[in-house]
């Protein structure tokens, strides 16, 4: 296998506000024509990612869901096990009140709250609430408070990862863990990983070609070592526009594809 591509969704392949991937279409079509696997990796649930996976005709590629806590191939899922999710919710209720009150998880919101927090339509918001392994939420406290919150949850084996919009709580496995599993299984010559937020850093650093997609809404990413070494680049354009440019550039550099223009 020549190349595998791993991508975050919100703020990366999907526009932060509209959730559209339309500006990335030229690069998506190039990948499809070259039969290069595209792995969607997100903090979203598997059920939430499945419609996009189907729309982009990505079968039989698996998807990395709930920030890496789950990897499934749509259409082959076993029965949903929500025990990990219930443990995370129970741990939240044991947090000191002043920290607990700064975190509003999807489990604290009703459907309307999720719609307002995410901008999703009602059906997608329902799928976003069907969680098995992780709890995303909004943090309204200070950065110091978040560090304490993350530390206390860490003592219960729960990791806290910041995305472009939400902090996601889960037990262990990251997007990059799943990425490494797939690389070990398929041994591609090259890998591309694209992301916009701290929970994408390991994935970006694991790839032979890492891409930091510009997102002006989130905390952004600090300079990464790979940027100096030349293995990591930043896009000028945000979201799917930046995604499109970076993927087409790398395909040209790898001499896999030439732009039509
Ligand atoms: Mg993102």
Automatic annotation (TrEMBL):
Source organism per entry reads Poseidonocella sedimentorum
Its protein name is Mannosyl-3-phosphoglycerate phosphatase
Record's keyword annotation contains Hydrolase: yes
Q: Name one Pfam family in it.
A: Hydrolase_3
Give one GO biological process term: mannosylglycerate biosynthetic process
Q: Which InterPro entries match?
A: HAD-like_sf, HAD-SF-IIB-MPGP, HAD-SF_hydro_IIB, HAD_sf
Q: Which residues form a coiled coil?
A: none
Alphabetized UniProt keyword annotations: Hydrolase, Magnesium, Metal-binding
Q: From the UniProt record, which GO molecular function terms apply?
A: magnesium ion binding; mannosyl-3-phosphoglycerate phosphatase activity
Q: Which GO CC terms are listed, alphabetically?
A: cytosol
């Amino acid at each position: 296998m020549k190349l595998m591509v791993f991508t975050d969704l919100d703020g990366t392949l999907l526009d932060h506000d509209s959730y559209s991937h339309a500006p990335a279409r030229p690069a998506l079509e190039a990948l499809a024509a070259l039969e290069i696997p595209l792995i969607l990796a997100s903090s979203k649930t598997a059920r939430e990612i499945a419609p996009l996976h189907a729309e982009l005709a990505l079968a039989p590629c698996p998807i990395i869901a709930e920030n890496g806590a789950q990897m499934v191939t749509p259409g082959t899922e076993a029965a949903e096990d929500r025990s990990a999710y219930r443990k995370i919710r129970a741990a939240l209720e044991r947090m000191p009140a002043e920290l607990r009150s700064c975190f509003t998880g999807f489990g604290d919101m009703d459907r309307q709250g999720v719609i307002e927090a995410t901008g999703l339509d009602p059906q997608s918001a329902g799928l976003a609430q069907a969680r098995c392994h992780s709890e995303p939420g909004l943090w309204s406290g200070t950065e110091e408070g978040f560090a304490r919150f993350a530390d206390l949850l860490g003592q219960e084996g729960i990791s806290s990862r910041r995305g472009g919009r939400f902090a996601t709580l889960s037990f262990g496995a990251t997007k990059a863990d799943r990425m490494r599993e797939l690389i070990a299984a398929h041994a591609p010559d090259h890998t591309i990983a694209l992301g916009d937020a701290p929970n994408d850093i390991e994935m970006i650093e694991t790839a032979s070609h890492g891409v930091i997609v510009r997102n002006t809404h989130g905390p952004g990413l600090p300079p990464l070592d790979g940027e100096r070494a030349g293995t990591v680049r930043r896009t000028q354009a945000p979201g799917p526009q930046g995604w499109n440019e970076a993927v087409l550039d790398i395909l040209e550099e790898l001499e896999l594809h030439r732009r039509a223009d």
